[in-house]
TrEMBL record:
Species name: Pediococcus parvulus
UniProt entry tagged with the keyword Translocase: yes
EC class name: translocase
UniProt-recorded name of the protein: Cd(2+)-exporting ATPase
Topology within the bilayer: Multi-pass membrane protein
EC number: 7.2.2.21
Transmembrane segments: 12-31, 37-57, 64-81, 87-106, 235-253, 259-279, 572-592, 598-615
Gene Ontology cellular component annotations, sorted alphabetically: plasma membrane
Keyword Membrane part of the UniProt annotation: yes
Location of the protein in the cell: Cell membrane
Pfam families named in the record: E1-E2_ATPase, Hydrolase
Reaction(s) catalysed by this chain's protein: Cd(2+)(in) + ATP + H2O = Cd(2+)(out) + ADP + phosphate + H(+)
GO molecular function: ATP binding; ATP hydrolysis activity; metal ion binding; P-type cadmium transporter activity
Family: Belongs to the cation transport ATPase (P-type) (TC 3.A.3) family. Type IB subfamily.
Amino acid sequence: MKFEQVIQKNVNAITWTSAALIVVGFLGEAVGSQMLYTVAFVLASIIAATPIIIRAVEALKVRVIGIELLVSIAVVGAFVIQEFNESAIVTFLFLFGSFLEAKTLAKTRESIKTLTEMAPTTAEVVQDDGTIVETDVDDVDEGDIVLVKTGGQVPIDGDVVEGSGYLNEASVTGESKLVTKQGGDGVFSGTILDNGTLKVKATKVGDDTTFAKIVELVEDAQDTKSHAEKFIDQFAKYYTPAVLILAILVGFISRDFRLAITVLVLGCPGALVIGAPVSNVAGIGNGAKNGVLIKGGEVVDTFAKIDTLVFDKTGTLTKGNTEVSDVKNYAADQNQVLALAAKLESQSDHPLGKAITTYATNQQVAFQDLQVTANNTIKGQGIEAQIDQHEVLVGNQKLMTANQIQLTAVEEADLKELQGTGSSTVIVAVDHKIQQIVGVSDVIRDNVKENLAALKQLGIKKLVMLTGDNEITANHVANELGIDEVHANLLPENKVTFVKQLKDDGHKVAFVGDGINDSPSIATADIGIAMGGGTDVAIETSDIVLMQSSFQELVHAYGLAKKTVANTRQNIIIAIGTVVFLLIGLIFGYIYMASGMFVHEASILVVIFNAMRLIRYQAVTEDKSKKFAKLDGDQV
């Protein structure tokens, strides 16, 4: 047993050692050294055949006849007829094919560990006498009052009983906007307090919290994922016994042992063994070169069958950061008004204010040197101040009304237009006159609409958006992008339910997301796709990662998957067709060992060169030319 373990542990080293010996053998033949030629190929055969024979024996113990048994018998037969070079090449190709397959199918997923490490471990519990005691999160009881400070993580689900602040709920809802929390508002475990101080009464603790349920959903979804049996394994159940029986019949009828062994050697499907892995390697390598990380050949096969794409909104369809999306200007000097607004908002830590100051900076508007006096923040309305002898108001419509400033019909229409897109609005008044209305929202990623259209051209039948955001914003984004179906105000478990329902309805589903909250859905879908700029958990849980978070990469990945699967099928047909041709020619006396091995090796080169075509694959999405996913001039 120890010997078998050592061999299997070092199978990669064995593969490369046999390859080196084969090279030495051919060099020996080139320099005319028959001894070097023979010894090198004999050693290569023995070394490479050892792990294959071990696998064949182990399979026979559980009554499984696989290609390993066929290769093993072919090697023994090749030794009997002293065709050492054939046995060495056959065994190396088999091991090299297994090596490629193992590489492409290797998945390193540590999402559960990562999620667990991100979960809060302690809580600051307020005692009856007002003191604060740091407590293990598992020891917090429902009804306890927990203190959460700026930068701290909420350790439980609960309701705010005292204080206020801005909470980052991206880990649960996926939404990038900071949410204002005050007395009576609910909060989730795992969310982070960006600014302020809160006292929270625990309503759910431990495994009952929303964050803990996310972890559980990922575990359950990954447990239910299964890998389809490889075509080659299924094929081997019938092919191996058939070739063995054929060789026995040929030997019995012809009384020609060498011919029977030749049937075994030529019947060993070298091109079949290497055909599928080399296509996957070429396809996966092309993806990596173009910013698409595909985690294995099985992922390629499954992704090619996807007909429904489900998207998270924030950070996926949109950039995930609140930005100024539109400015309605009524002033003669737009930059002067923007400078006043930015200077005033720079005095605030409100998320909308930060968006405006960032926008002004990007527009190269100078506002830092402006002088602010009589600054006054009005809760729930905005800010008023004196800036360079101007009275400036920045806030909502309530602030304008409180200062007897009325919107004109045009301004009222502009305000409703911005709000209709789901944008938050900021009104800027200077010297009692409205000068600008600024829309702040999470803007849609560049070229998403064109790329979604390209995906439909490639075969996607349904586009679905699932988001924790409100219906107005969700519907606006969906209408803008041509999304077929949209569901809003969802928590992670709701998204998982929708994904499961789509699968139950017979759809092949891929989920595209970026946050921790998306990881359960990513794991539940047939294919999980993560944006490269997203969280580590989403990336590790996923099957495909778009490294630059670009929808062009998604189009490339889908077209590449379809092309790779088609290429693999071509290689399988070439391999099986070659074997059938060789066996028929051998039986009828048209093919001999030398010519047969030439065709055999040529078929291996053909499938490799065919697979290499995938390296040149490029998906092109140009709105004007309407070119979609082309390879060598052929439409996918």
